[in-house]
Design brief:
With 118 residues, this protein is mainly alpha-helical. The chain contains five helices and three strands. It folds into two domains: 78 residues, Orthogonal Bundle (Arc Repressor Mutant, subunit A); 40 residues.
Length: 118
């Protein structure tokens, strides 16, 4: 398999892991630093089972690493660059939302100008 095809396949797998809403929520929460499962459960509003399974998938994809702290396991992002990448995604969404708001405001103004406000 040519290296480009293999690289694309691996990247697609990585993006599929990130694309799950709960796993994405966990990654965003871990941007703030190391957290234990209980803290993550409260932050994302999911059960221990769901959080643990999602963390296992993220760990298998090498996106998070864990550390034992007594009876607790603490998780953190494997690479700080991942936090930067997530911030870039959020910035993209903010830009998109701002554009939507501009269009919404323009439509509302046009309706006011035409006297057809709803």
């Amino acid at each position: 398999m040519p290296h480009r095809i293999l690289a694309r396949a691996e990247l697609a797998h990585l993006l599929a892991v990130v694309a799950h809403p709960l796993r994405l929520a966990l990654l965003l929460e871990l941007k703030g630093g190391e957290r234990d499962v209980t803290t993550l459960m409260r932050a994302v509003g999911a059960s221990q089972t769901a959080v643990s399974q999602s963390l296992a998938r993220l760990r298998a994809a090498r996106l998070v690493v864990d550390r034992r702290d007594g009876r607790h396991v603490r998780y953190r992002l494997a690479l700080q660059g991942l936090a930067d990448w997530l911030d870039g995604g959020l910035a993209l969404l903010e830009d998109e939302a701002a554009q939507f708001q501009l269009v919404h405001d323009a439509i509302a103004q046009a309706r006011r100008d035409l006297g057809t406000e709803s």
